[in-house]
Amino acid sequence: MTESLSLEIRALHEVSLTVNGELKTVRAYPMERLLDVLRHQLGLTGAKEGCGEGECGSCSVLLNDALVNSCLVPVLQAKDADIVTIEGLAAGVQLDVLQEAFLKSGGAQCGICTPGMILAAHHLLRRKPNPTTEEIREGLSGNLCRCTGYIQIVEAVAEAARRRAAA
Amino acid sequence: MRSNPADYQLVAPASLQAVVSLLAAEPGAWLPIAGGTDVMVQYAAGKLPARKLVSIWNLPELRRIEVSPEEIRIGAGCTYTDLREHEVVQSEFSLLARAAAWTGGIANQNRGTLGGNIVNASPAADSLPALLVYDAELILISVRGERRVPYKDFHTGYKKTKLASDELVRAVCLARRFSGYLAYTRKVGARNAQAISKVCIAALGRRASGVVEDVRIALGSVAPVPLRLAETERLVTGKPVEPSLLVSAKRVAIAEIQPIDDIRSTARYRAAVAGNLVAEFLEKIGEN
Ligand SMILES: Cc1cc2nc3c(=O)[nH]c(=O)nc-3n(C[C@H](O)[C@H](O)[C@H](O)COP(=O)(O)OP(=O)(O)OC[C@H]3O[C@@H](n4cnc5c(N)ncnc54)[C@H](O)[C@@H]3O)c2cc1C
Ligand code: FES
Ligand code: FES
């Protein structure tokens, strides 16, 4: 019993998931973090590891359209799910309105928090296309930035909302 | 030290029945993982003793909110976002909706579940004072069947619960009889988002013919378990809200709690804040 169990524990699993619209199958331990699978197996290094414990949001991705911290998701729980990372937001070389607004407003400095910030903002604008400043702050409250002081980030999101509304 | 994923087993049965069968086959061997916002943090720190995990994330049986004329039955697998977005939770159980809205950031609310908050059993858990004042009942399930346990009896001590090793929390039931009450809740922490409470309060009250007719007050982070302030409630019931009542209510409330010093705060600060929150709530009833 113990022996067969330890064999089972060490077994890699095949996990299929859709990432940025493409169906992928990876071989991974089921407790591997989605963050590591994205970065190391799929080469998608946009999601960053800031804290590894749910506090900073730099590893944010969308899982079935919901913002999650990929450092806290075992890959088995992402089986058959639809994942969107920052790499999936731009359409080819055409940046998303949010990405352009972050560039223009100085919402990105070192860039570590930026992929997570932009996905959190994207998640917010999908639900609240015309957010108040308060709603923007709440929508981004799980994403920490050590560089900008947040003002430029909040402005970038407000600007993107205006541009999306005008489009 | 980070954990090595190769040392862990994780399975994801497709039904609730399959999960409880697995728990029954080897009681205590399998640790349920729902949204993982507590379990994965322990795992990241290399502090997860369990080596075998069973996922209950997104099981349809656990992720429903059923509303009947008498009660609302919230599946234990519902996330904070599910709670915040539900119309009846918003309108009739605002204390729970508010607690959900300040449990970490949006990403945490999309994964963290009510069942996880209950079973993780932290004295600082934000949804638990609300469950106390709403007289919540838990439905527990195992292969032996279901049982219904009042939430107030469920937490028996610091991080201890009545959950048997083969059981899951299936749902939380709230009776729909509190819509006529004034609801008051505050979380006092280092910042609004992403901060564990130093003290949190959930309270319901009603005034009739100038006196406090009924009150229910619960606090988190002031004792090993979330606490209902029975003495304070008794003291104020039937009395008009006057400055002298606020003073004595504060005193009785502080005597009822057992706050401690820890990394987040001190016992003295917690006692002072707890007293002030109780007084502020009573003032609101007075104005109501
Ligand atoms: C960044 C961050 C911020 C946070 N902020 C707050 C906060 O402000 N307030 C707060 O209260 N908490 C907070 N938490 C803690 C956590 O999010 C909550 O306790 C959450 O409700 C846990 O739910 P989960 O589904 O993620 O639990 P999991 O981590 O999946 O499980 C937690 C425990 O519950 C057990 N369990 C889960 N569901 C069931 C079930 N149905 N039946 C039996 N056992 C079960 C698991 O076995 C485990 O022991 C925070 C966590 C993080 C990472
Ligand atoms: S790395 Fe995931 S939240 Fe910080
Ligand atoms: S730009 Fe550096 S952390 Fe935000």
List keywords for this structure.
heterodimer, A: 167 residues, Ubiquitin-like (UB roll), DNA polymerase, domain 1, 2 domains, five-stranded mixed β-sheet, 15% strand, B: 288 residues, Uridine Diphospho-n-acetylenolpyruvylglucosamine Reductase, domain 3, Enolase-like, domain 1, 3 domains, five-stranded antiparallel β-sheet, four-stranded antiparallel β-sheet, binds flavin-adenine dinucleotide
How many distinct beta strands of chain B?
Answer: 14
Radius of gyration computed on alpha carbons of chain A: 17 Å
Structural class of chain A: alpha+beta
**So, CATH architecture of the largest domain in chain A?**
Roll
Largest sheet data of chain B: 5 strands, antiparallel
User: Which runs of chain B of at least 5 residues are low in confidence (pLDDT < 50)?
Assistant: none
Mean pLDDT of chain A: 94
Bound molecules: flavin-adenine dinucleotide, FE2/S2 (inorganic) cluster
Largest interface: A-B, 37 and 35 residues
Question: Major sheet of chain A: order of its strands?
Answer: 2-1-5-3-4
Report the oligomer: heterodimer
Give the number of DSSP strands of chain A. Answer: 5
Q: What strand line-up does the widest sheet of chain B have?
A: 4-5-10-6-7
First-to-last CA distance of chain A: 63 Å
What is the tally of helical segments of chain B? 11
Assign the CATH class of the largest domain in chain A: Alpha Beta
